[in-house]
Amino acid sequence: MLSLLWLIPTLPLAGFLVLALSGKYLGRRSIAVIGTSSVALSALIAILIGIDFIAAPPPGFVFRQEAWTWIAVAGFSPGIGFYLDALSLVMILVVTVISFLIHLYSTEFMSGDDGYARFFAYMNLFVGSMCILVLADNLLFLYLGWEGVGLCSYLLIGFWYRDSGNGRAARKAFIVTRVGDTAMALGVFLLFTHLGTLDIQSLMQRVTQQWPEGSELAILAAGLLLGGAVGKSAQLPLQIWLPDAMAGPTPVSALMHAATMVTAGVYLIARTHVLFSLAPPVQLAVAVIGALTLLLAGFSALAQKDIKRVLAYSTISQIGYMFLALGVGAWSAAIFHLMTHAFFKALLFLSAGVVIMTLHEEHDIFRMGGLRKKLPVAFWTFLIGSASLAALPLVTAGFYSKDLILWQTWSSQGGNPWLWAAGCGGAILTGLYIFRVVFLVFFGEARAAAPPDTRRPGLRITIPLIVLAAFSIVGGWIETPPFLGHLTLFSDFVQHALPPAQVVHDGKNDETVLELLAIAASLGSIALAYLLFLRYPAFLHGLMLIPELARIRKFWHFGWGFDRFYEFLFVRPYIWLAYADRNDVVDNIYKMAISFTLRWLQKVDRHDVIDYIYSGLAELCLFLYRALSATQSGQVRRYAAAIAAGSISIIFIGIFA
User: Per residue in 25-34, pLDDT tens?
Assistant: First the structure.
């Protein structure tokens, strides 16, 4: 079965090609079959390969498959090759299985949309690009998948492009993530320049052999890769694009947040963990960025009214937990939480999609209410997803993964009490903001929203919700704490690719106390949410009448002012430079010079022969101004001709001079 590895990314890409080239000639049923079956077959092959890999592990717990040589120039010959180990196997199973469930859901959810074929073509390309990213055996091939998911995010966020707001959100996501992508590209160039290869495993070996721990090159390379990870995974300071990305259809949000895009940064750091281990300041920065992000995003989620924006900030916060784990060296804990997060976050988005669909595209949680009995499937699945997100003890997958991160943040060599306290604070915020949504949407009295559609979701929506709900409960039972049997199946498997956390505080009493504190944080936050948003909402309403608290809430609602800060720092200066006086700021300089010259000449005696000198200078300035302005025609062909002429002139001078 391992020889079929190449089919995992190929099948979704084939589905994309078929739909892109012939989608307008196909019926909706054929489009749904092609779009969904290509991902379903990819998921089935991934599962069979996973079974084969575990039952009969290849030598070294690694399987490599080289398809062909991509480029061969002067000794540089990266290939189209795939690398399967424990880490990439977990990732590919998460990506393909979750993506299949979202595709199945989409066949019904998007059934009335005019761009049905275009939607599934983009979704297939999204999945194929993510599969390339996680299976690539070299950084150049990985970067192809990396840019592929960036392109697809732009296409899918702006899917309903007739709304200008959706186009702005798509452009914002594309531009902000390009900042991180540029940093990553520079990191790749640096690694190749100094180490002579882009093969990831060879690269990590050479890093260990040639760069000592704490070397400037290791710190610089790791810092640049961290820039790429921060951009793709929406962490500080590049987190601003993800809340606006909710402009896309709900299945897009589920796919982006659960199985693709935002998990790419976590995977990149885990895949290059050797490099980050040799750069302690950068690894500490990963932990600090994660801790700050999970707190800031948690506060922002508390202030949102749009149900999808709450979940968007929740994703930013939960990715922050993964960064926190990576930063303290808890590599397997980060990937474990990535897996459980994929289950419950996909479930939350798809359940929210049912609510939005049946309420005629209503997103405001304060215009909902009383939907518990009217939408029982959406209620129970959203409740299970919320409980897992809030780490409800013992019965949810989120409890086991988040608890493992908190314990290793305290006990590992790279952890400390401050980072652990940030994680616990984030746990309290998580329970508050997600059960705020549960109580406002599904409990109490119905509010001003349109009455629910009498049409109930069909099987293509219900089945993915039930499967994901089951995963959100049992998905964490493969890694349990000591007082619950101390199963370590997941970490034992992943540690074939990632080193175990270096524990320095291994007291069982300490672990029990910390477990109890984590349980108290989860249960206490849920109880507090019940009191504030369901039992005594008037008390909270009274607090919001205090001007200072209202201003703080508004500050959190707008993402701590990052958008406004970047607008003043980057956007407005760029727009001024780009559009000042007919798109050419040089015009202003010439006009100022000419105006000053003419005003000065007016003071000179007209009958003085010297006037002719100044008049001539003024005319010369005007002539030069008009000549230079003429070059700014906006016609690309003229620019290209000028560049070509200049290049030929330089070559001519170089040859005959």
Answer: 899 999 999 9
